[in-house]
Design goal:
By secondary structure, the protein is of the alpha/beta class. Helix content is 35%, strand content 18%. The protein has a 7-stranded parallel sheet with strand order 5-4-3-2-1-7-6. The model has no long low-confidence stretch (mean pLDDT 91).
Length: 230
């Protein structure tokens, strides 16, 4: 067990904020859908915009997102590196990033297991955007140490996951899988391990997955972080 560095700032969020089952549990029943992002941003300080939503977003939509949140809120943009599926193009990501301005946290390139045999699309996407944006790479659990080391050695920041195959320290963004949120002990392990890998004074973002993300677990994670002195 490592010590948690001083002055670490932990921000929690979810993958997406539009979840039907959150209505009446997290969101009040009477809350209009257009107000959900503003309500969400009063409780949490970051969000991962799903790739399929980002791919369909117009400039006016992105402007509305920016105006609906407080000044310190951060948007992370999801891109799926996969043989199939809906994902934004580099041009769309750059346009969305420009629309969000200082409220952009960064871009998360998520590599599907089927894409591990040929990382050419990943590096092509990186070449198109990384000179202008902060880009992090989320590798699947079966990527293996060799792939992890290869990506890290090229200087690309990795997304943290507590799976024992990632040796990177100082990751700015981390993901909590749905299975870790079903058990309070597992959640504490994830939160503590993510905090321990952070550097002194770093602001780090921990994002929750799931269909939908477990809103109760997100609240529990805030309590755990507080008990750990954050």
């Amino acid at each position: 067990m490592n010590a948690i560095a001083s002055n670490v700032q932990l921000e929690l969020g979810a993958r997406g904020w539009r979840h039907a089952s959150w209505c009446g549990t997290f969101y009040p029943d009477t809350l209009p859908p257009d107000w959900q992002l503003s309500y969400y941003s009063n409780e949490f300080r970051c969000v991962l915009v799903p790739a399929e939503e980002l791919a369909l977003a117009h400039a006016s939509t992105v402007c509305a997102w920016r105006n609906d949140v407080h000044g310190e809120f951060q948007f992370w943009l999801e891109v799926q590196i996969a043989p199939a599926g809906v994902s934004p193009s580099p041009a769309q990501v750059l346009a969305c990033s420009a629309g969000l301005g200082p409220k952009l946290g960064g871009v998360l390139l998520r590599v599907a297991p089927q894409a591990l045999s040929d990382l050419t699309p990943l590096y092509a996407y990186l070449a198109a955007v990384e000179a202008r944006l902060e880009v992090h790479i989320d590798l699947p659990a079966d990527a293996g140490d060799g792939v992890v080391r290869h990506v890290a050695a090229a200087g690309h920041p990795l997304c943290w996951r507590n799976r024992g195959t990632e040796s990177a320290q100082g990751c700015r963004i981390g993901m909590v899988p749905a299975e870790s949120t079903r058990d309070l002990r597992a959640l504490r392990v994830d939160v503590q391990a993510f905090l321990e890998q952070a550097g002194v004074g770093e602001e780090i973002h921990l994002l929750f997955e799931g269909a939908p993300p477990n809103i109760d677990a997100m609240g529990n994670a805030l309590v755990i972080a507080s008990l750990l002195g954050i």
